[in-house]
Each structure stands twice: as structure tokens, then as C-alpha cells.
Give the backbone structure.
Amino acid sequence: MYKYDQYDQQMVDTRVAEFRDQVRRRLSGELTEEQFRPLRLQNGLYLQLHAYMLRVAVPYGTLNSEQMRMLGDIADKYDRGYGHFTTRQNIQYNWIKLEDTPDILADLSTVEMHAIQTSGNCIRNISSDQFAGAAADEVIDPRPYAELLRQWSSFHPEFLTLPRKFKIAVIASETDRAAMKLHDIGIKMVRNDAGEIGAQFYAGGGMGRTPMIAPMIREFVPLDQLITYAEACLRVYNRYGRRDNKYKARIKILVHELGKEEYTRQVEEEFAHLLTQGIEPPLAELERIGAYFQDPPFEIGLADDLDLSDPDFRLWVERNCHAHKAPGYISATVSLKPVGGIPGDASADQIRLMADLGKEYSFDEMRVTHAQNIVFPHVRKADLYALWRKLDAADLGTANIDTVGDIIACPGLDYCSLANARSIPVAQKISERFAAQEKQDALGEMKLKISGCINACGHHHAGHIGILGVDRKGVENYQLLLGGSEAADTSLGQITGPGFDENGIVDAVEKVADVYLREKQGEERFLDTYRRLGMAPFKEALYG
Amino acid sequence: MKILTGNDLKTGAVTWWDGESWSLHVDDAVDVGEGGADIIAREEAARRVFAAYVIDGVQTDEGVRPAHIKDRIRALGPTVRPDLTLKPADPEALNWVI
């Protein structure tokens, strides 16, 4: 894992001191709310429905046990005993006091964490594959490149006041586990025919009110030009992105309106100019960063077999574990979606337990996934049963990854001031409706995602089944979408028709599931069946 | 009726104008009529509240209730965590929110 150098630490500590003074000035009346608001947002402090909310960055979703333990301690000390893991691999606290915030940021700084650039029109936390550095199918560990981009984008003076927020994802596998094409810039690390590693760039993706899939704009950028090309992409956006209308200000609108070819032409022109300016960090810096992401000391010669005689453990292994590149090891996903639970929420005790288990069983390393779960990336198969037993005892052993119970849901109207409808109660009811093992087995992979408003923090456009909460004259109403995907076969869901009320949407999901079970052929996933049949049989079942 | 809500500057807690001061309980809210803007200006200047705004309220047998669901959830707390609402021991509390 990356470790702060003196510059990183000094930057974060200086920011904490600066914000402490800004809070003091706000509380003393030297700053008005209008003056203070952009300052607090730059430090991840929002005002939400019930209180201040603090969003803490987890760079590319990677954290160690000391950091995870601190997240649990903050939940206890400053919040109400829990945290909410988000779809951008961050964590949010819902009940923060302004007067406590400088102390929280100071505590975070002691474990090399912060909340900088988790809000505002800047480059946000870089996200990545939760199995980075562990997956058997990756070309290379994408995290050193994500870290280089993090350093480049942190406090980048030119990109702190972009037309709108800007999100970047970096992956290195054919299997996209980070919704890469639904980011402002998606980067896929690839190997070319000459065996060299480079970056494939996608630009102009996003969800929100105008969902778009990012087109590829450059097939291969050499490693020694990675930052220069990213800078060119940002410069063209910063120069021509709309600032007159916030709903048309994201890069996806610019790429769409210019067209991929024209946007790419301008990026290439800017890129050629920047290459003469020598802005690329030396490769030695990338090598320095890369040294922090060396494999942990995997044991050699471990057996690959698992004792699956416990049926509950067997199910958990089948659903929650992922192939590891090292023989004898496996990656395990902790579901934060118990039946009827709140997706992404974990108590302080659960967070601290995961910290302890990460240290004991996963080389002191964990990941936050964009699906609001936690990963232990490097677990010895021989230890897996013991790990699962301890997780299960803490209500963290649910076996449902990528099933209908593994629902992504934004905080919705229960917490969010932008939301139009509640997301969590719908997720809870669907989770309970499909709780039976046999139902989940029959349905197989079925990704269900719920957003409480058009901003799409719950990724509803990309769900095999998506749900969007809207406000109909003061009453919650839920639109149903089918056919989305955020994997390598990225697609956007289509609305089925008129919306449903809170109970009606649960029934509607069940009707959709029934059509799938009736019509599926062979091993088809729900998404495959939908793509084969189209919307018609599902609409017929829903609206007759 | 028009009622006035905002957030406590230090804690961020949702508060309601009770005619003299700010209360955590929407039951204490009073009709501010057309006077909301003046109260907001005065109270925000005194840093007793921020992000204040006027909303429609309804006088019910149980007390004053915000007209819109978003403000009713603000008034009580998250519907999915009754233990964190202002009335954790009242199983009926959520009935007037939804």
C-alpha cells in the first residue's frame, strides 16, 4: 500500500490546520455561511437532511487495518456508531458536528486519510477494481497508476474549479469491476502487441440525468505520457465545458455535443502541445509509487483445496469469493447487505472487526467496493473457514454477492437533501422478498440498483434491474428500468413504463423475476434473457 | 400555515422556530405568516441558525406537521433507523411521516 511521504503528510496536516481556522472563523461570525460553504465542501463536509455529513476519501478503495479501525473509532467518537460505505468507494458519516470536524480531520491525518476533494467541482477520489493486485485476470496492478493520478489531481491548481465534478476510474482487466465506462474518464491499463504496458482512455461517460457510455478516445498511451494525456483531456474540458448550466456541465455533454472525433482531435492537439512542456513526472516517480504496491509475501506451495463440507460456508465461498492470482489464496467479499439491512452501512464494531480480520487474514489490507461491500483481497484458502466463521458471528457472513440481495442503494430521502424518494426501504423490502435461498439460486446473477433521485448515486441506469425514486406531487413514486450493466458489456437500462408506489415496485421486481425464470434458456443470466427478448414480455407482465 | 426551519450552526441539527427561539421538535413550530424572511435574516446574522427556509405546514390533532414528506423526514429522523429519530421509543412516530 502507498505510504505518505513528508510532502503528502505536510499537505494534509496543513489543510487540517487551515480548516480548523476556517471553522473557528465561521463559529465566531467572521465568515458567513455563503463564504464558508465552499470551504467546508472542499473538505468533504456537506449539509444533509438531518445534520452535517462528512465524506472521507478511500483512495481507489484501498485501506489498511489501522485506517479501517480509525473509521470505526470516528463512527463511535463523533457520529452515532456507524458509517456508510458509498458507491465511490468512500465512507460517509451522517451525524457530524461542525465543531468536531477539525478534530476528525486531524484524527484521519494520523492514519494518512482525509476528506479533501470529496466534494466540489474538482477531480474526485480515483476509483478502481476492488480486486486490484489480487485478481487472476488482471494485466497489471492498476493502483500505482491510480495513485499517480491521485497525486497529480490533488490540489492541481488548474483543475480545482472545473465546470463540474470529475470522476476517474482505473482498471486493468477485461472484466470491468469499476463501472469504468460510466466515468468522466475511464482508464484501462493494457498490454500492446509489443508487450508494453500502457493506458487506454475512455472519456465522456457518466450517469446522472443524462447517462452516457464513454467512448474510447485513445487505444494506447505509453506509461511515460499517462499524466500528460490526462491533463490534455482535462484541459479541453476545462476550456470548453459549459459553465452556464450545471445540468449540461459534465464532460459527457461536451463529448456528446462536440462528437467523439472532434473532442479527441482537440485532446490530441493539446497533448502534442503539452508534450513540449515536459509536465510528465519522471518514470522514477512511478517506480517509487509502484514499490509500495509489491505483492505481499505470499507463501509458496500452498494447497488450493477447500473443505466445503459446511453447506453455509460452501454457499458463501461460491457467492462471495473470487479467484486469486497466487496459488493457495483467494479474495473474499464481505457483504454489507444482510437480509433487510441498509446497504453499505456498518456499525463501528463491525468496522473494527473487519480491521482486525484484515490484519490477521489479509496481509493488513482491505478494499471498499463500488457495490458498497468490503473485500479481503489476499486470504489463504486454509484460513478462509475461520475468517468466515468470525464474519458470520458479526452478521457479516451473508452470501449474496451479485445476487438480487446485493443491492446498491444511495442514502435516498432518509438522509440526502437532494433525494426525491427513499431508496433504503425499497432495498430492504426487495431483500426480504427474495431472502429465500432457492429464489436467489434460481435467479443467479441479478444486479439491482436503486437511486433516490436523478443524480443516480445508486447507479440505477446500470442495474440489470434499476429503480429510480421520483416525487409525484409530494408522493414517492418509483420508475423501473431493465437491461443496464456497468460491466465490460456496459449498457444503460430502459424505463419499463409508468412508475409504482413503494409496495408496487417490490411486486414489479418480482414479476420481472418471474418472467425471467419462465423464459430463461440454459444458463442465461437475467441480463442475457432481457437482451434476447427485449422489453415486451416484461412490460406485458407489469402492465398487462 | 408557514413554518420556519433551519440547522443549528454548531451541530447541524434540524431546528424549528417556536416564536422566540429554535426547537428540535416540530411540535413547537409556530405559524410565521409572512414574517419568515425577517426572522431568517435576524437569526442567521446572530449565528443561531443557518440554511433556514420557510415551508408549508399543517396543523393536525397531533401537532404541527410539515406538508412535504422531505420535511417530515427532516422533522423526525431517518425512517429506516427509528432508534436515531427524535422519538425512538414511539412505534407510532413514523406514521405521520409517510
In short: The two ends of chain A are 55 Å apart (CA to CA).
